[in-house]
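# nightly structure sweep
# worker-07 picked up a monomer target from the shared queue
# config: single-sequence mode, recycle default, output format = C-alpha cells
# input follows
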Amino acid sequence: MSELVFKARGIVKQYKKLCLPAFQWKISNALNGVDMEINRGEIYGFVGGNGAGKTTLIRILAGLVTPTQGKIELFGKGEQQDLYIQRRRMNGIIEIPALNPVLTAQENLEVCRLQRGIVDKKCIEDVLKTAGLEPSELKGLKVKNFSLGMKQRLGIAKALLGEPEFLFFDEPLNGLDPTGIKDFRILIKTLNQSGITVLISSHMLSELDQLATCYGFIHKGKMIEQISAEDLEKKFSRYMMLKVDNLPLAEKISRQVFGASKFEIVSEDTIHLYEQIDKKGKIMKAFVMKEITVEEMTIKGEDLEEYYMSLIGKKK
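# output follows
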C-alpha cells in the first residue's frame, strides 16, 4: 500500500463577506467538504477554474490558512504539533514567489538558507543551476530587475532548498516562455524520478497532461473526481493516428517492438493505435530505422480540458 504524503478529509473553509449597501455579513464557502489524497511518488495535477478552491486548499496544506472544518494529515501525522514538524519536509510556491526585490538571487536564497538552518552554503549554487539560472550571470543583479520568468525560476530554486520530499506549485508556469515551460516539465520529471512527490495546480491543462500521474478535479469548492492518469487515459479513448507508406511493416513493429495489440486498420495506409501513445518519439524512431515513411502522426480523441469541461457540465 502506498504511503500517503497528504490526506484531507471533509475540509470546509468559510469566509465572511460584507455585502453592500445593506452592510450585512454573508458567509461563503471556498471549500465545501473536500477529500483529497496524494500518494508518495505521484505528480498530482490539481485542476479547477478560477475560484474553484485550489489555492485555498494549498494554503491549508502549507499551514497558511486554518480550515473551518475537517482535518488534514501530512506523512501520516495529523495533530497540530506534528503538522508543524512534518511541514519541514515540504516546500513550494503559492501564486507569486516571495522574494525581496532589492536583494540579489543569491542574497534571497542566503536569507532563506539561514532561516531554515541549512548548513551547506553550496546548496544555493546547486538549486540555482537546477532551476535553470546561471549563478555567475546573476551576481550583483537585483531581483527587481529580473524578468517575470526569472523570478519564477528563482522561486523554484527557493522551493528546492533543504531537499524537500514534497513540493507544491500553484500556477508555476505563469510568466515562463515556451523554453521555460519545457525546462520546468523536465525539472519536475527529474525531481519526481529522484523520489520527490509533487502537487501542481495549473490552468495549462495541456502541460499537466504531459506531467501528471494522477489528477484531482475541483469545482465550486467540491472535489468532483480523483483519478490516476492511467485510468483517465482509458476514459479518453485516445489513439494515435499513423499514416505510413508500409502498413504491414508498421503493424509488425507496433506488435513486436511495442507490444501493441489494440489497433485498427482504417485504410491501406492508415492505422489507429490505441496503446503506447505516450511513446510517440520512440515509435517514430523505430519506423524511420526500418525506412518507413511516416506522413502523419497525430494523437486523436478527448483531451484533459475537454474531460474537465464535461465533468463540470454534469455538475451544473
